[in-house]
TrEMBL record:
InterPro entries: ABC_SBP_TrpX-like (IPR047776), ABC_transpt-TYRBP-like (IPR007487), Peripla_BP_I (IPR028082). It comes from Streptococcus merionis. CDD domains: PBP1_ABC_unchar_transporter. The lineage of its organism: Bacteria, Bacillati, Bacillota, Bacilli, Lactobacillales. PANTHER family: ABC TRANSPORTER, SUBSTRATE-BINDING LIPOPROTEIN, ABC TRANSPORTER, SUBSTRATE-BINDING LIPOPROTEIN-RELATED. This is ABC transporter periplasmic protein.
Length: 335
């Protein structure tokens, strides 16, 4: 009997020791993760231009980093620069961020990411909202980037946008596409939209502008020749969007966009990707790289599932009716 009691005590003691060692191991693992984030990191961010969409991406980046344990002002310093669409500043700022030996670099929008990519082949560069990374010569393969660059790509859901145009403006036959000829990401979007729209029997007329200086005259020439206007995710157009909306409103022509904030500014509707969520995903990818992930082996994350945003007020001003079925599907209705 005594032997049996002794065996029971020894068995209980063994279970306790195993459990204790397991707990210690788990605690040690968690402690190592926190130790990684407790080491202060400094990163550089280059934003192409100031406008609400890119500002939302930057806010999302800060949130994504914080979600992963990197809090600005605590264990993280962010060197932020904005080129304000000046190509010469992109080069200078990229070189400065590289010279400052930041642990990682973030390029918000294609021109900014390209500037950073040209400035370094060693420091990790994370793309924020680059629509066509391969076409922009930033990576050679989305699944296996192979260099010091990876990031997040926003694939505009153009086929869904064409369906939106059909539903709201069923009598439209000609669509004018306004975009910047200097942005590689815009060119790929225009090609995809044109293909989708022509399959739906629309006539698509492209209007390219080299800079914001030509937008007013281009829009004035375009509006009498089209029934509706579509703009891709384009930083040049976004930065001068009030000019586009002012002329379109006077001409009584609807403007379909690719970004929610531009619908809020006067566009009629969009199938849009959340710029903030894009930023959050970018921030989390930066955190992974800071924690040791290899950009060369980190696939580019693709955002392509959009949500419907409609501006009911603009539709009423243009004498258009948004179908009830579409309003039911919309995630955001501006009235």
């Amino acid at each position: 009997m005594k032997n049996k009691k002794l065996l029971a005590v020894l068995a209980a003691l063994a279970v306790f020791v195993v459990a204790y060692l397991g707990f210690t191991s788990l605690s040690g693992t968690k402690g190592n993760s926190q130790a990684t984030n407790s080491e202060h990191k400094t990163i550089g961010v280059l934003q192409f231009v100031t406008h609400e969409s890119l500002d939302e991406i930057y806010r999302g980046i800060e949130q994504g980093l914080a979600d992963e344990g990197y809090q600005k002002g605590d264990n993280l310093t962010i060197n932020f620069m904005n080129a304000e669409a000046d190509q010469s500043q992109i080069q200078k700022m990229s070189e400065k961020l590289v010279a400052d030996k930041n642990a990682a670099l973030i390029g918000i929008a294609t021109p900014a990411a390209q500037g950073l990519a040209n400035a370094t082949k060693d420091i990790p560069v994370i793309m924020g909202a680059v629509t066509d990374p391969v076409g922009a010569n930033l990576v050679t393969d989305l699944k296996k980037p192979g260099g010091n660059i990876t990031g997040v790509s926003d694939a505009t859901p153009v086929a869904d946008t064409v369906e939106l145009i059909q539903a709201i403006t069923p009598d439209a036959k000609t669509i004018g596409v306004l975009y910047s000829s200097s942005e590689d990401n815009s060119l790929s979007q225009v090609e995809a939209f044109t293909e989708a729209a022509e399959r739906a029997d629309y006539t698509v007329v492209p209007y390219a502008v080299p800079s914001t200086n030509e937008i007013a005259t281009t829009v004035t020439a375009m509006l009498p020749k089209v029934d509706a206007v579509w703009t891709p995710t384009d930083n040049t157009i976004a930065s001068a969007f009030p000019t586009v909306i002012s002329a379109a409103k006077e001409a009584k022509k609807p403007v379909y966009t690719s970004v929610e904030t531009m619908v809020e500014e006067g566009g009629i509707a969009s199938v849009t990707l959340s710029q903030f969520d894009l930023g959050v995903a970018t921030g989390k990818m930066v955190a992974a790289v800071l924690n040791g992930a290899d950009p060369a082996k980190t696939p580019v994350e693709i955002f392509s599932e959009g949500t419907i945003v409609v501006n009911k007020k603009v539709a009423e001003e243009l004498g258009l009716t948004i179908p009830a079925s579409l309003l039911e599907k919309a995630t955001t209705i501006i009235e």
